[in-house]
Amino acid sequence: MAAARLLQAVVPRFRCLGSLGKAAPSTSQLSSRLYGTLLAPEANQQMDPTVINDKLITEPLRHPDFFNVKELFSLKELFDARVHLGHKKGCRHGFMEPYIFGCRLDQDIIDLDQTMKHLQLALNFTAHVAYRKGIILFISRNRQFGHLVEVTARDCGEYAHTRYWQGGLLTNAHIQYGTGIRLPDLLIFISTLNNVFEPHVAIRDAAKMNIPTVGVVDTNCNPSIITYPIPGNDDSPQAVELYCRLFKMTITRAKNKRKQMEVLYGLQNKADSS
Amino acid sequence: MTLRLIYTTTAVQKRNVAASGPEKYTEAFIKNQIEEFNLGKRHLANMMGEDPETFTQEDIDKAIAYLFPSGLFEKRARPIMKHPTEIFPKQKAIQWGEDHRPFHFLFYTGKQSFYSLMHEIYGKLLDIQKYEDHLRAQSLLAENRKLINLIGSRWLIKEELEEMLVEKLSDHDYSMCIQLLERLVTLPCCGIEEEYVLKFRRELAIQLKKMVIEPLQYDEQGVAFSTGEGKRKTSRATAVIYDNGSGKITVNGVDYLYYFPVMQDREQLMFPFQFLDRLGIHDMICTVSGGGRSSQAGAIRLASARALCSFITENEVEFMRQAGLLTADPRVRERKKPGQEGARRKFTWKKR
């Protein structure tokens, strides 16, 4: 628990991976005044826990693919799950054109090579967020898969929101929930559109609150504001099951890795001190 | 890149007291209040000279009304002494742990208990469908139909559901929930989840006021008789009908020809007998009080019809009921309203 509190003191609110190590108390107080979510850091910090926490946090950031998410999926798996199938040419969004491979009989085909790259980046990012004990919120307004997404979130130990989005959930959280609430640190969109085929309000709100987003964008979606878009199909059941499985595996993997590392560094510290 | 605070006013930093919502009572505070209440209860019992052990809430209310007499009209403004759980509103416990991660996985939806209930019900629906598919594959579906018996019960109303979930619901949410439950109940194999579904049903209190037909009584000479009561407007009547008679009717000790000089009232008295073709067969002795001439006649008519039910068959009772002889007339005098001349009559309207 002490490690968790120190960790929150260390990780600044806007999640730049470049700014590592412990933030100075003044900046975290600054962010708490402006964003209002972070606790004040503990005043009494001993030497050894800070060293351990430094290592715990900096170590994964040295490797491009620390959690080895590349092995979780292959091009063939994506193809079999029909991830490459997009909507018709008339539904195409202008900003999705770079991600589209081509058009066959009026149906858009998404470029799976680009999808592989984006998926690897997104899964890597979620793994890092889960490793550092961030709160992840799954969002999908597709009624066909709402139950599946909720079940996935519950199995990971994270949170889900597949219902009507109340306007002030992120931006008005202190009044709706009370003070002391911690907002999600990552939003994962299984479908970026809501029931009227408009971009989900949460994309804009997350951008306003400086919360990074990962989202599966289909050919009729707007990928511009999403931090880690994943061009791919969001309507086939097989594709959505694949995404849920992948996210669940990465998050559980990252959490297990975190436990392992804590144990490892705990032992190392004991070995060093004795 | 770090953010630098350039300039803010104190207005931004001042806490918005109004926006913090209703007062929050900590658990320690409530516990304190409960201890104080119990001590105060014992003191009050001693003051009133009662036994502190058996001092109930009604005794407390009476004692407070005696010790602090108040002439205020508003009952809620008078001094009260009740258990703190009734006074301080129930608060939801803090929903997140030490590391500030919420406990419930649907916390960020805002209505976590309601949506988790919907999630659960939908999960059960999917389970039932899977079970049905399993049976259908082995072609055993036709034999294993298990339906839930919904007769004599109703779904929870919105207030009861809100009470169950400790959360405010909107009408739309409630209707969605009931629709989902209805959908679950229509599946052929829903019997698997019967006890779960019955949690959302309440028994209907069926009030069938069946008319009790009194059996015939016999007096000393062996003559069958029966009694009946009736009312109309402010009149109350009791009638005793004897068998083996000649159609004599006595009202308040006086013959009916003298008591009701008007033909219309006597026709009212005759109506039940005429309807059943028993005009010269029965004797009647009745007492009536209150009301005027017409309402007394109506009251006796009802009383005699009710008394006659003992002499006749079930079908004839049904015919009488259909004819309106057994229904008490609910019409009473409507009060006069201020600003009008009568109950409905308005004052004369003058254009200028």
- The amount of beta strand of chain A, in percent, is 5-15%
Shape of chain A: globular
- Lateral strand order in the biggest sheet of chain A: 5-4-6-7-8
Q: What's the order of the H and E elements of chain B?
A: HHHHHEHHHEEEEEEHHEHH
| CATH top level assignment of the domain at 79-168 and 182-263 in chain A | Alpha Beta
Helix amount of chain A: 40-55%
CA(first)-CA(last) distance of chain B: 82 Å
CATH class of the largest domain in chain B: Alpha Beta
* Sheet/helix structural class of chain B: alpha+beta
The rounded Rg of chain A comes to 20 Å
- Major sheet size, sense and barrel closure of chain B: 6 strands, mixed
The low-confidence runs of chain A, each spanning 5 or more residues with pLDDT under 50, are 6-12, 14-46
Largest sheet: number of strands, sense, barrel closure of chain A: 5 strands, parallel
Number of helices of chain A: 9
In angstroms, what is the radius of gyration of chain B?
A: 35 Å
How would you describe the oligomerization state of the chains in this entry? heterodimer
Arrangement of strands in the largest sheet of chain B: 3-4-5-8-6-7
- Beta-strand content estimate of chain B: 5-15%
Q: What does this protein look like?
A:
Chain A is α/β, with parallel strands linked by helices. Chain A has a domain at 79-168 and 182-263: Glucose-6-phosphate isomerase like protein, domain 1 (Rossmann fold, 3-Layer(aba) Sandwich). Helix content of chain A is 45%, strand content 13%. Chain A is built from nine helices and eight strands. In chain A, helix 5 crosses helix 9 (237-273) and helix 6 (146-156) packs parallel to helix 9 (237-273). Chain A is globular, with a radius of gyration of 20 Å. By secondary structure, chain B is an alpha+beta fold. Chain B has a six-stranded mixed beta sheet. In chain B, helix 5 (112-137) packs parallel to helix 7. The mean pLDDT of chain B is 88. Chain B folds into three domains: 27-87, no CATH class; 107-203, no CATH class; 217-323, 2-Layer Sandwich (Ribosomal Protein S5, domain 2). Chain B has twelve helices and eight strands. Chain B is extended and about 115 Å long. In chain B, a hairpin with a 2-residue loop joins strand 4 (224-232) and strand 5. Chain A binds chain B through residues 1, 4-5, 8, 16, 19, 27, 30-31, 33-34, 39, 133, 135, 137, 147, 150-151, 153-154, 157-161, 163, 166, 169, 175-182, 184, and chain B through 1-3, 5, 13, 19-21, 94-96, 98-102, 105-111, 115, 119, 122-123, 126.
